Amino acid sequence: MDSGGGTIQTRATRKRRKMQRVTMMDVAKLAQVSPSTVSLYLRKPDAVSPAAGQDIARAIDTLGYVPNLVAGGLAAASSRVVSIIVPSIRNAFFAETVSTLQSALAAEGLQVLLGHSEYGEGQEEALVRTALSWAPAAVVLTGLNHSPETRKLLKASRVPVVEMWEIGGEPIDMAVGFSHPQVGASAAGHLLSKGRRNLVFLGARMDEDRRAAQRASGFAEAGKGGGAPICEIINHPGAATVEAGALLLNRALQQAPDLDGIACSNDLIALGVLFECQRRGIAIPERVALIGFGDLDFSTSCVPSLTTIRPSGDLIGKEVARLILARIQEPHAEDARRVIDTSHVLIERRST
Amino acid sequence: MDSGGGTIQTRATRKRRKMQRVTMMDVAKLAQVSPSTVSLYLRKPDAVSPAAGQDIARAIDTLGYVPNLVAGGLAAASSRVVSIIVPSIRNAFFAETVSTLQSALAAEGLQVLLGHSEYGEGQEEALVRTALSWAPAAVVLTGLNHSPETRKLLKASRVPVVEMWEIGGEPIDMAVGFSHPQVGASAAGHLLSKGRRNLVFLGARMDEDRRAAQRASGFAEAGKGGGAPICEIINHPGAATVEAGALLLNRALQQAPDLDGIACSNDLIALGVLFECQRRGIAIPERVALIGFGDLDFSTSCVPSLTTIRPSGDLIGKEVARLILARIQEPHAEDARRVIDTSHVLIERRST
DNA sequence: CAATTTCATCGTAGCGCTATGATGAATGAA
DNA sequence: TTCATTCATCATAGCGCTACGATGAAATTG
């Protein structure tokens, strides 16, 4: 086994700087069991005898052993990591979902590897590629709109994939979310039911944010179907911020001075509209009814309080976690429900 | 080398289900080079000849090879992962920092492993423990307040550690942030300079959020030092939300009916105060001057616009990334500046 | 032209762990 | 008692990659 002349390198000349890390082997030695038993204890504590378990626990404690999940992941051909890719973590919607999801996964010993694509499809593909490099237990993406290459990569990897915050198309694997056109339709329906006929939808960055665009077109369709003589969509090229809301209101009033109902693609925009109305003395809801989307923090408290549509970002997070955990525990239950509709709720407040 | 009788297991009986994963070996074979060369090409493309590089690139493309970073991390004894632990990702401050940090790290091929501690010290220790299990390239924590055990773990690991969003104590390794008492003092100073004397500081969850508590005490000290006859701190036990702001204002008016200056530990609370004032017809800034903290999205747009203190969450993210990258590239430049003060800026608007 | 240095490339030994099946003792059934 | 079954524990072979030093050819020097 040793020897080997000729071109074979002599083994004495080489030596990797042996890390002085505490390994499972050290624990095993101290506890006087084999490494396998330590490994077993760590993964399934009930499978080893109580006596051995105690010895091992004591040894771990004494040595301050920290398991190396990288090695474990390599050996097990799958790491306990779930890779989540969202357009932007600054967005309160996704922050909520990620937060919930993270808690649910952490409870089962899964870590979260986070990426944000900033709404770029090419960016996303690169992120998916690195995500897969970690042999993740699952990959979570936002929306159903991905490049063919991304879909191919993910399908080939055989890793569980959940697409969230959108349903209505063909998912790569599983999907949790709601229908954005329906949200738009609900908003329009609500304004129509309040007797409003001159409607405007205000959105931002809708060329990139496909889901906002879907809400807009759902709104327009329902508005026209409901007999609204005016039903415009106005887009702001920048991000969906409060400031954008003010700008959008002004543009809207120019284009349609008689408007009496406004839906926004986002509560932040609605808040901007609300402030601009305060500034200009436009009465809400008397002169203009206002409905947002997101049910953010401030929506109950603002003056007047904001009618909005709640997408339940936390529920989405919870359901995504449930699907992932189910798939990990039962990899072959492929017949399980793969698409979950978390629906949306319209919350009527004072602004309509 | 083979054979081996007695208790030695025969090798034919065992066979790990060889994954049909495309490995570096496959790429090497197709490109007719050794695996070492492929590895070298992937890490330092300039170190291989252009001809070989092209062959390898073509082979990678043909096979759809995705490198296994888990294996790489194990071999290199350090993964290209930076572990970030924040109290809450829902908090806009941290979302901003994490977002910036993530972009900066991604540009250098580093991934982000995210954890949130929900302001629990025990929670944090568990998170640090799992974080270290990934042999991360660096660990980023929030604040300087950590359990002794956490500090010990991190120091023993010899992993670069950055504590962010707070300076003024002894960091474990490096720190990027600003002084919270100074922020409180600035707020008090500003209100005093506007002739306000009956001051109140409104905060939430200050038993857990030590940094908010520091802002409060900095405020109280400066207020008293500046001769304010009234200078109270009022705490809300729940989260720092817009709704909490309204509740806090009402409590404040009960405790100190004559108050004429309010500082809030957070712009969200300030926004709640602002709305409650609108509701109750309290004129800002005439009757009460209001200053927040955070310079969130809405602060420019609200009515009246909000005087606030900007902590520069994105700058913190950038500086943290810089420190980490410097340390990774030059692990022994231990003499480098370890504490960076990103300072704060008071932005005067209409509310004071 | 020999001696030295550079350069691209290569072969191999781990990195620390888990999966697999083996082993032998203890237990139950026949 | 004898054989089958359960149970806790173990030995070993990789998982896919990178670091290390080796190798031989080409370029440079004396």
- Strand arrangement across the biggest beta sheet of chain A: 2-1-3-4-5-11
Please state the average pLDDT score of chain A. Answer: 91
Overall CATH class of the largest domain in chain A: Alpha Beta
Oligomeric assembly: homodimer
Shape of chain A: elongated
User: Quick one: CATH superfamily of the largest domain in chain A?
Assistant: Response regulator
Helix percentage range of chain A:
40-55%
- CATH-defined topology of the largest domain in chain A: Rossmann fold
Poorly predicted regions of chain A: 1-14
The biggest chain-chain interface is: A-B, 60 and 60 residues
Which structural class is indicated by helix and strand composition of chain A?
Answer: alpha/beta
For the biggest sheet of chain A, the summary is: 6 strands, parallel
Q: What would you say the CATH architecture of the largest domain in chain A is?
A: 3-Layer(aba) Sandwich
Number of domains of chain A: 3
SSE string of chain A, helices as H and strands as E: HHHHEHEHEHEEHEHEHEHEEHEE
Write down how many β-strands of chain A occur, each being a DSSP E stretch of 2 or more residues.
Answer: 12
Note the total helix count of chain A.
12
Cα radius of gyration of chain A in angstroms: 27 Å
Distance between the termini of chain A: 83 Å
Brief description of this entry?
With 352 residues, chain A is an alpha/beta fold. Chain A has helices spanning 24-31, 35-43, 50-63, 69-76, 92-106, 121-133, 148-157, 180-193, 210-225, 242-255, 267-280, 313-329; strands at 81-86, 111-116, 138-142, 161-164, 174-177, 198-204, 230-236, 261-264, 289-291, 308-310, 339-341, 345-347.
